[in-house]
Amino acid sequence: MRLFQTFVFALLLISGKSQSSQNTEFERSKGEWPFPVSNFIKYIDDGEKKNGFCHIGSRGITFFSVNTDSVKSVFKGKIISIFHVGDGFAIISRYGDYFIGYSIIDCPTVKKGDFILQGQYLGRTLRDWNQLFLTLHNRNDKEFDPCNWFKWASIENAGKY
């Protein structure tokens, strides 16, 4: 029995350390994420929502495209949920204590339980909407402005509405 307790304790320590290292890796990715859509023409970030431009009720960033666009993951993780939202789908991925939500997706190509890599194809923007809403939360349901996590240097505010 003592050996079993020691094994369980060691497993908990390892998994706790793993969770901590995942959180550190995720936090270090701030400012380095690729964009989830490649052909966006404008975006609305948390600042515009606070100024009354858009009332979605959640922090996040909305990317707008001229046409239907591919949606790709901004960070690796595990798909923990896929569900209907209006005419489209929402996909939630988790890495450590962090959750990334992708909304207004047509034809998801992943399923619950899948492990995804950064840049992996998740689906496409919903036809006639041509937009993607992305949110970022942690395990304590604290919302973050995902705008701060993208690598903007290459486009220098291009497309800001």
Query: Globular, elongated, flat, extended or rod-shaped: what is the shape?
Result: globular
Radius of gyration: 18 Å
At CATH level 3, the topology is Glucose Permease (Domain IIA)
Q: Multimeric state of these chains?
A: single chain
Order of helices and strands: HEHEEEEEEEEE
Number of helices: 2
- List segments where confidence is low: pLDDT < 50 over at least 5 consecutive residues: 1-17, 48-56, 156-161
How many E strands?
10
CATH homologous superfamily identity: Glucose Permease (Domain IIA)
**CATH architecture type:** Distorted Sandwich
How would a crystallographer describe the biggest sheet? 10 strands, antiparallel
- Measured between the Cα atoms of the first and last residue, the distance is 63 Å
Average of pLDDT: 81
Total domain count? 1
Strand content: 25-35%
CATH class: Mainly Beta
Class computed from helices, strands and strand pairing? alpha+beta
